[in-house]
C-alpha cells in the first residue's frame, strides 16, 4: 500500500483542502471590514430598489395583457388558505371527538401505543 | 536510485488500474447523476395535523409499541426545511426518536406567501408556537410537552419558553442556538447598521428572498461550494458519497424566504441591539428574559460550527434560570451535528439518554 505522502491522489485532495481553508480564511478577513459591508450593502440596496420598480412595471404589463395580477392570484391563495384552515379545523374536531369517546387513536385512525415507556436506566426496554 | 520512503512500486499497476476504473465509473455515474433525481427525503410516515400559511404542524406515526408519556415538539429554523432531520431511513433523526419510543411532532415552515410579509416576531412566538403546543396537547392528551429547537428554531423556543415560564414546556433542547449575535462576526458585519438599510430592503421586497439568505450563508465559506463540486466529481463513482452529497446539497440550497417584518425585528433587536443577550428583549410587549426559563435544558453545540460559532452560543446555559442544565459540545459542524453519520454516533444517543429519563 502506498504512503499517503507519496500518493498523488491524496496529495491533490490535501492541496484542495488547504486551498479551501486558505481562501475561506482570506475571504473572511476581507469580508470583516467595514468597507466590504458598505460596498455589499450599497449594491444590495440598488438591487432591492430595482426589484421593486421591476415588480411595479410587471404589474402594469399583466393588467395590459388581461392576465391576472399578483394581487388577484394572492386573493385566490388566501381563499384556498381559508379552505385549508377549515379542513384542518374539521380534522382537529374529529380527532377531538374520537379522543373524547375514549379511543386513543392517531389522525390516520390507527390506535396509538400506550404512554407507559420507561427509560432503559429505569428498567424500560431499549427499542 | 532509491524509491522515496513509503512508495511501493509493486502497487503502482494496481493503483493505475483502480484509477482507470474510477475514471470510467465517473463517466457512467456522471451521466446517471444528471439523469436521475436524488433520494426521497422526509419520507417517515406523518400526518399534517394543522397548516396555516407558513406554519405546518406534523405528527409522525409512532414506530414503537410503547411510547414515553411526554410528547416532543421540534421547532425548525425559519430559514430551512425540516427534512434535514428526516433525511432517509437509517439517517433520520425523526425515525431514531420514533424507534426509541418518543411521540414526535414537528413545527415546520413553508415559504411565507407575499401576503405574509407582515408576520412579526410576535406571530411566531406568541401565536404559531403556542398554537402548535395546544394542538400537540389536544392530540396527545398530555399537558406537558418537550421542545427541541434547531438553530433559529432554538431562539424561537427560548423566546417562547421565557415568556411562557409557567407554561406546558417540560424540557427544552436547543441545537446550535445563538444568543450573542455580536459574536456572529460576519453576519454582524453584513448587517452593520451604518450601511445596511433594513427598512429600505423590507419595504422594497416584502419577504426577504431565499437567494439572499442562501448567499449570506455561502459567503461565510465562499470556496466551499466549488470545492464540494470538485469532491463530488472525484467521488462520483461512490454511490454512498453521491447519495449523501445530494441529500445535503438539496437541503442547503432549499432555503426559505423570511417574512419581512420578522426579518426587520431580527436585524434590529438581535443583530443590532443584541437584546436577547442583554436581557432587554421583548416580544409583543412581553419581556423575554432567559433567566425566566426554569425547565431542564440541554444545549448541543458543534465544535466546528461556522454559522453559529461557539462564542455566539456559549452563554446560553449560564443565562438560563434552570437548575437542571447542561451544555454538550460535539465534533462536527452546524449541520453534521444534527444529521448524517456523525450525528447518528454522537448527538442522537446523547439526546436519547438525556431526554428519556425526563419524558416519563
Number of strands of chain A: 0
Helix content of chain A: 55-70%
- Enumerate how many helices of chain B there are, as a single number: 14
- The total beta strand count of chain B reads 10
Q: In terms of per-residue confidence, which ranges of chain A show pLDDT below 50 for 5 or more consecutive residues?
A: none
Reading the helices and strands of chain A in chain order gives HHH
Shape of chain B: globular
Separate helix tally of chain A = 3
- Shape descriptor of chain A: flat
Question: How does the helix and strand content of chain A classify structurally?
Answer: mainly alpha
How would you characterize the largest beta sheet of chain B?
Answer: 8 strands, mixed
CATH class of the domain at 46-183 and 274-356 in chain B: Alpha Beta
Output the structural class of chain B: alpha/beta
Task: Return the string of H and E elements of chain B.
Answer: HEEEHEHEHEHHHHHHEEEHHEHH
Termini gap of chain A: 42 Å
Query: What is the CATH fold-level name of the domain at 46-183 and 274-356 in chain B?
Result: Rossmann fold
Span between termini of chain B: 72 Å
CATH H level of the domain at 46-183 and 274-356 in chain B: which superfamily? Answer: Alpha/Beta hydrolase fold, catalytic domain
* Helix-residue proportion of chain B: 40-55%
User: What is the rounded Rg of chain A?
Assistant: 30 Å
Overall mean pLDDT score of chain A?
Answer: 75
Domain AB hydrolase-1 (chain B): 93-337
InterPro entries (chain B): AB_hydrolase_1, AB_hydrolase_fold, PHA/PHB_synthase
Pfam families (chain B): Abhydrolase_1 (PF00561)
Protein name (chain B): Poly-beta-hydroxybutyrate polymerase
